[in-house]
Amino acid sequence: MNIKTPLSHLTLAVALVVASPAFAVGYGSLGNTNDSELNFDIDVDGVQNPYQVALIPFAGDSVVSNTINNNLSHTELKTTSQNLPQRAHSSAEISQNLSHWQNAGFNYVVVGQTQNVTGGKIAIVFEVIEVATGRVMQGRQTKYSENNQSKLRHTAHVVSDKIYEIITGEPGDFTGRIAYVEETGDPRNKTSTLKVMDADGQNVRVLFSTQGSIFSPTWSPDGQRIAYSVQKPNGLPVIHLQSASSSGGGQVITPFKGNNLGASFSPDGTSILFSGSHENNDPSIYELHIASGHLKRLTNMKGAENSPQYTPDGRSFVFTADNGSRTPRLYRYNMNTGQASAIGGAGANPRVSPDGSKIAYVSGRSLVVTGAGTIDTTGIDESASFSPNGNRIVYSSHKGGRGQMTIRSLKTGQAFTIDTQGTVREPTWSRGGIN
Fold first, then answer.
1. Which end of the chain has fewer CB atoms surrounding its CB within 10 Å, N or C?
2. Distance of CA 311 to the CA centre of its chain
């Protein structure tokens, strides 16, 4: 029997007083004629609230609360600012009506306010309250922002990261930014544009635009620079490096006569790996020290080696190679031994999670994540990029005759798409962001 009440579980003991032997005889044996008490377990499910976190819009705010709510609602922390039992701006106000929040089925309440402070800045003060106990988790928090919409949105992402960390114990991924390529026009005479945006799809900026193709943008570990390949009409792809806060194309760092593709930054940001074909038209993996220009060939297998990516510790990298079979497979190269070994079956475009525990790659037209299986059928051969905490991925796909960008939670499978003006290609998520 299920009873919907605000309580979690309840056991009722129903005492039956036996008035006379005739009563017992009339109802027959209950298995133990000495029983004077019957226990009924009643499973009380409690309030079934689809939301876990209540975010009360902050006092004095028109930007921050909406951004935080949008961020958290796209994670496993199902969050809402609608139909709340109470409007409040401090934990003291919540504690006076704690039973209302418990009865409503929320696990956490976030309250706060924005205040003008000296220097023309805004202070964002907030608290995360655990509804079961009424305690303020990790105390009252304050973050400061310059008083303009762009900076307030960035600080809202910082606050979102902190709220996520307070509740889950894991770092958030909202301050990381996403770079991607957008293609417009006739495919035979297309314009490719490198853009960067916040992880919620807002604050889009153009970094570089060209006639031709842009391939494989990748972030430096500190989120300050982007490397990518550019192939202009009748030319071969070369790798550009530029600041993520500037525009115009940066500098060419691989002026080698061949294909220069698939850049990946080393964990310390001083070097890149890439696939180059300037030696005998044989695509191999090279390591380039950016400051000195020193170039070292690392692989020399049969066929083509492509799509290298450093592991987080920098001791190895993953890549694909056909090894003369014409079927790309996943390999790992050990930087200490100089040896490559197969780590899986057929696959392309591998990407390593920030903690090194997972690899996303493409098998046919399916996006696969090790340990999670097939994530989606994308219709294209591009892999995903992990979010900074590794709990979500971003990828492009081709469905319904158009390209789109999808962000999906690896914890819940929940996904949402971001609209773009053209065909979106190769989104990549930074580990950090510029303030």
1. N
2. 18
Rounded to an integer, what distance in angstroms lies between the CA atom of residue 369 and that of residue 344?
Answer: 12
Hey, which CATH number is domain 53-166, 1.10.600.10, 3.90.550.10, 3.30.70.1400, 3.40.50.10070?
Answer: 3.40.50.10070
Output the CATH code of domain 177-429: 2.120.10.30
Find, among 427, 422, 381, 431, the residue nearest to 406 by Cα.
427
Angle, to 10 degrees, between the axis of helix 149-168 and the axis of helix 64-73?
40
* 190 contacts 183 by C-beta, under 8 angstroms: yes
Residue spans in the chain of domains classed CATH 2.120.10.30: 177-429
pLDDT in tens, the chain (435 residues): 333 333 333 332 323 233 333 323 232 332 333 433 333 232 333 456 778 999 999 999 989 999 999 999 999 999 999 999 999 999 999 999 999 999 999 999 999 999 999 999 999 999 999 999 999 999 999 999 999 999 999 999 999 999 999 999 999 999 999 999 999 998 888 999 999 999 999 999 999 999 999 999 999 999 999 999 999 999 999 999 999 988 887 899 999 999 999 999 999 999 999 999 999 999 999 999 999 999 999 999 999 999 999 999 999 999 999 988 889 999 999 999 999 999 988 999 999 999 999 999 999 889 999 988 999 988 777 889 999 999 999 999 877 667 789 999 999 999 999 888 788 999 999 986 554
* Angstrom distance (rounded) from CA 244 to CA 209: 14
Please give the helix or strand (H or E) that residue 182 lies within, else none: strand 177-184
Task: Give per-residue burial for 121-145: e unless 16+ CB within 10 Å, then b.
Answer: ebebbbbbbebeeeebeeeebebeb
